[in-house]
Design brief:
single chain, 648 residues, alpha/beta, Heat Shock Protein 90, Rossmann fold, six-stranded parallel sheet, five-stranded mixed sheet, 20 helices, 65% helix
Length: 648
Amino acid sequence: MERTKVDADSGIAARRRKLAEKYSHAGKLRRYCRGRRALLPLRLGYEVLGAALAAWFIGWWAGVAAFAATFVGEMSEQILDRVGMRRLAATEDAEGAARWVMAGSAAWAVGMAAGVSVIWFGGSEELWILGLAFLIAATINTHLAGSLHLPSLVVMQGIIAATVAVMLGVEAWEYLEGHELDLMRLEIFWISSSIIWVTLFGLFARLHHQNNARHAAERSLIQTGIRLEQTNAELMENREKILKREAEARRLAEEAQAANTAKSEFLAMMSHEIRTPMNGVIGAAEILRETPLTRDQQELLETIERSGNVLLDLINDILDLSRIESGRLEIAVREFDVASLVADVVTIIHPLAEAKSLEFTAEVPDGPFWVRGDEARLRQILINLLGNAVKFTDKGRVALTVTPGETWRFVVSDTGPGISAEDLGRIFEPFEQVGSGMARRHGGTGLGLAISRRLAEAMGGRMEVQSAEGRGSEFCLVVPLPKARGDAAERRATSTDSISLEGRTVLVAEDNKTNAAILGRILRPTGARFVHVTDGEAAIETRFAIDPDVILMDVSMPGLSGTEATRRIREAEAAEGRGRVPIVALTANAFEEDRRACLEAGMDAFLAKPLKKADLFRTLAEVLGAGPDTSGQGAQAAREAPNATAEP
């Protein structure tokens, strides 16, 4: 492309040089000489014809004399023109060359005048018209190329005009000597001659004007062509720039995509690496809470649980932001009771408000209100808004007001420090916090509001805020929640505090011994038989050896992964005609694509680490159809149930 631009530039420069040379003094001189040389055959033809007519009407001597005179003039012009052109080529002296050319034109005109004079003076009056015709032809011939070199044109026409004047003067003098003055004849003669020459000069002037107009049009056309080539060159240059920018944009997009992919892979890896030990920490804390503890131990346990949950919330916030930015956030729509959800949220927030001596109120219409929406995301937003209100309010009150309808309104208000007008415009941006001092005092990453707003938008709603410095804040979540279908009265929430798995066998495929031990401790009170293997191959073998009621399958295990083990189990079940054993995925990879991959492999449910006992029991109840333990015999059965570890 660069070479094309250079070629275009050189072509434009060449055209400019050619145009300048064509209309320069030297250029016109060269064109004049070429034109005279091109017309030489035509002129010689006329001159031969004139000589033949002179020989026919006057005598052979007249023909020879007329041709000799014109031929000498022609040759003299050609020789002098060549001398001038060679001088021009050698010295670029246009003025000197013009003088040689003008001398050649004069020689030609003299030769032509001499030839016509032979016809004029050698014959009778009847031949005057023939001589006059040849003079007219010569005059016209001078104009065919003469406009390119006006000095030569003037010289040639001057000599021809002088010749006419001499011929007419001589004839008039001779006529007057031999005859009486005939004024009428003299007037007719001069008037006729004048009319002819005036007509010719008018024609020549018109031709000269047209010739100039043609040259002007030619110059304009050439200039337009040059401008067109310049425009084309600029377009080519701009096209090259556009192509370069497009290539740069593609490169940047590819780099951004690669960076985003690397970030997602890093977050997935870090999520897995952090959630795996967190599963042991939080699971052990839940089990430890059910044992007798001293006051100090209880406080330390609460610190462990609180710190673990804070770390888990931070991980979840970062993952949510990554999903939102990469466009991978999905809304899971299902039926749920808004009243129960709000009650759960109030149960979580109330102790936090009570610890700060804040008044906490919740205005919720009597339920239940069964709707369709993403229960988990709605709970996440409400907990974030209420948690922020409690966090930043040192005294006064925090209130939640719920207004039902096709579009629900959840209003969280507080009597906290408020938000300045300057900060209102950026509180929904990631990692933004109001006031550095307040941020240091209360902590946090500044991701909560950004994620909440984007979650609201993903659910088809919006987030609004009204606040003034020193007057508290009011956040309003507006989200559409269509009514659920069916009879809501028939829906019952399954208790997840405990579950009876008496007589059931649970196969756990988990390579992390700590996590396996935690699962065993959680399942012990349910009365289930607990069988543990550490890889996918062992999981397949054990599934067909003991025929368990449910399999808890870790996704990431050395050797054969959990998803591949599940595929092989499903294939073997179909081939042998065996019943389908429920398989629940256990994974520290919390991305939506990980959940889909597990379900596509044939798993029935998905649990993200760290596991919560309530989530585990709820999922087992769903896949097994088990009910809550109301007999109180679960613990006794657990103590007597045989637990086993199947070695791979």
